[in-house]
Fold each of these.
Amino acid sequence: MKTASPFLELDNEPRVNVVFDGNALSLPEGANLAAALMAAGVNVFRHTPVSGAPRGPFCMMGACFDCLVEIDGTTKQACMTVVTDGLEITRAHRDGALT
């Protein structure tokens, strides 16, 4: 599936199945998670705990923390995570609490 994302799909890479907020996605194995999610059309990774403002990847190098997601109960930076088969990803701070 092609999107209007500035991140290009890696068409020749093997795909693995992940789940993002209950939606099944097929992402390139070994790719940067933040880039792969954006290429798949995911733009909002979390909402800020105080104002609820939407956030997504900004720096793509682990400095800003705007791409936080929750994987297996642990909050991680998507830009510092590699896509592997079976990831269960949810939006961080979805209940308004800091984790």
Amino acid sequence: MAKGNTGEMSFLQHLEILRWHLVRSTVAILIGATLAFLNKHILFDIIIFGPKQPDFVTYRMFCEFTAWLTGVGLMCLTEMPFEILNTKMAGQFSTHIWVSLIAGFILAFPYVIWEVWRFIKPGLHDTEKKYSRGVLFFASFLFMLGVLFGYFLISPLSIQFLGTYTVSADVTNFIDLNSFISTVSTVTLASGLIFELPIIVYFLAKLGLLTPEWMRTYRKHAFVVILILSAIITPPDISSQVLVCLPIVGLYEISIKICARVVKNQKKALKTT
């Protein structure tokens, strides 16, 4: 339990402190959302609709890579054969608001993590604080890395596959605005949260809820879950699922190392007390 200048704090005092951390975090998200809302051109034309353009950086890289590998640009795009439509009166305005909120959360994420850290830090022992240095940086770094991974890899692959797929030449794709934007924003945000796996494992290990032995024992089960998760957030083709699986599997293996390190440090701390 966190300690203040007057000793142990009551449950209600903890709730009051938590409330203010949540208030400050919410304000930070709203500030980020306001900035995103006011920069509509950057948010939508450049970022959200970027993967819709045939010259998007991911498509160019895959085009050049396949041309180098096979001599033929197998993944080169000249156009995206679909149109985006809005079918609701307030569709564009409501979409502008909730996309801005998601952007605000992404922008404010380092500060939100900092507020969470400020709440739990007083309850840690000096040795725990020592071993927990860098958590704030790595949590923010992993989240942003996941966001970039989702935006520059998973989203373009999903749009390229699903947007150009047709069952017949007689069928033209007209994609709803919400459907397109939810694909980009949801996948991007989900990837950022998935990349927080090592940080989640770190805290679960600190709480004694997770051990490296348990993670090794259920490694195969975890890989099955990863495959299912990859199939959900990627288009239904093997190459995309493999591209998503590899970094998540790597994160799982890193998480085992982190869990083992936490348990080792806890045992060492018990011996010295």
Amino acid sequence: MTRTVSIHSYRGGTGKSNLVANLAAALARAGQRVGVVDTDIQSPGIHVLFGLAPDQIGRTLNDFLWGNCEMLAATYDRTAVLGSCTGSVHLVPSSIKAGDIARIVKHGFDVALLNDGFQQLSRALDLDFLLVDTHPGVNEETLLSIAVSDTLLLIVRPDRQDFQGTAVTVDLARQLDVQDANIVLNKVLPGMDRAILSARAEEAFGIPVLAILPLCEGLLSLGSESIFGLSSPDDPYAVAVSAMAARLLR
């Protein structure tokens, strides 16, 4: 049975895609078969972290949504970039072509097809986890991704705007009857009291804090060249993400 995990943030710049990539790698290295779908169709980018160059991308999620192919035809096995690994990672990127993005923005797509694609991919690849990298904010595809999730991870920075916006998303998740919603506090500065920050978040949102991830200069310096946890597994950020993966496995 595939566990669908949507990773969402109310605002951009929270480190969501880096977290998705590092979490996928940690789960795969723990022996899991992991699918990753980039539903941030208006500003895709997670393919960069998995070393998938533009000239390597043929079919994309866009093609599936427009009825041009099955979801599996838009899926790329990226396990090789993880090095020694007992699991696997399979990525469905969104198109980075300006014309395709403009078409989505102007005409949209049948959002219900997303869920069909998730199920197709999960069955075809016998996935243990399906990670959905959502578009920031609230729109139709985000609501669907949240609604079909077994687990929702809401990425929040210790920032007043993030807190207020995330509260809206938490309310929507309750209305959509999401049973397992969690907060992930990201980009936490070294001097911040983590116990106080965690208590503040749980009081504000009424859901548990799954993880607290430190602001990571090494991750910023890497500039999305690759998946940070693979080259720096002992960094506090990578250790915290691995602990997240272990909690999801439990």
Amino acid sequence: MKEKVIDFGNEKVSILFKKLFFPTLLGMLSMSAVTTIDGIFVGHGVGSDGIAAVNICVPLLMSLMGAGLMMGAGCSVIASIYLSKGKTVLARATITQAMLFVTLISVTVGGFILAFPEETARMLGSSEHLLPLVVDYLVWFSPSLLFELWIAVALFAMRLDGAPKLAMWCSIIAAVVNVVLDWLFIFPLGWGVMGAAFATSLSCLAGAAVAMGYLLFYARDTRLHSLRLGRKRILFFFHDIGMQCKIGSSALLGELTMAILLFIGNHVFMRHLGDDGVGAFGVSCYYLPFVFMIGNAIAQSAQPIISYNFGTGSTERVRSALRVSVFAALVCGVISTAAFILFPELLVGLFLRIDNTAARIAIEGFPYYGTGFIFFILNLSIIGYYQSMERVKPAITFAVLRGFVFLVPCFMVLPAIMGVKGIWLALPLSEILTTLVIVVTFWIYSRQRAIICR
């Protein structure tokens, strides 16, 4: 299970990025495929009500995945800097503490869902018509939370350890298992959304088993480390977890942006178009994690390069990594936007029959929705750049702008002005405004540096 050592300090940055990006991208897309595969089978096996029910659960699930990404990004940045200084034991302790923390989070939340499933479903905005389907999905999905958060943290540690291809296979294995079990549980067995949720739980268990096996027995620098009790150890734990949360908070905000998008979008579509509107929006939201994971793959591929060279003071290599990641973001953004504008019927048809009312709503809205993906991916890569250098303030500022300051007002104002079209355009406008703020910030910073250098 060993892979060739990656030299973050000396190898050409563009080559380093390629080594990390393609396995990371395939792994990320495979992670997104787990939920999307559920949607495809649910759409054809249950119908638009099934998609709407799953979509109502997604904001909560994304929030928890955000916690996993926050801890993964935070521990990876800190561990990268420790490794650049030769402090391998501290790097291992940092990753182990992150795994322990996400375990506590997932067990607590999963226990609450199992104890109060109907209350949780209503809190998420379920109608009485969809309540039985939402409860079924929540109850059978909740065991997967532990495995999903383990995977989220482990993949960061595996890429940092020089095993990006194995990290990719963890996600691919989970996706393949999910395809087989979704088909078995939904069609031959007829278990509906319960079967989709149970399939996801089992597939995440398979991926987590591979990831945890590597970190326990095979990892070189990021192997899980035994933690000892004691006053100093406990203080170090809370200090280290606090730093990880602080550094990785922009990753959490990235997931919360999508959770807020889904939560508010569900309510707005429900108000304007009823359950069919939520079903249409649900189809679009199955694709959004793919776009998010593309941006995340760019940020996470650049992260160990930036963090390691930031730790050694290699400023030019840090800037080179930024240039490479921005170029990758622009290329991927153009491809994603073109797909939504040119092929809406094909994309919607994977989930629903084209003559379905929800499908027609989605087909009309996809071209508007997709116009923001260039800016969506670019913003994620820039936020990841700041996060990788422990520059928490700008990373959080940009994340808050796109997820709260701009997105919520866009959802409130645009539908009132433009109707249903305005709902689809809320995300693109929010991302465009965030990009404009980032460009102005870079311009001001460049002007200030030029004045200082004179």
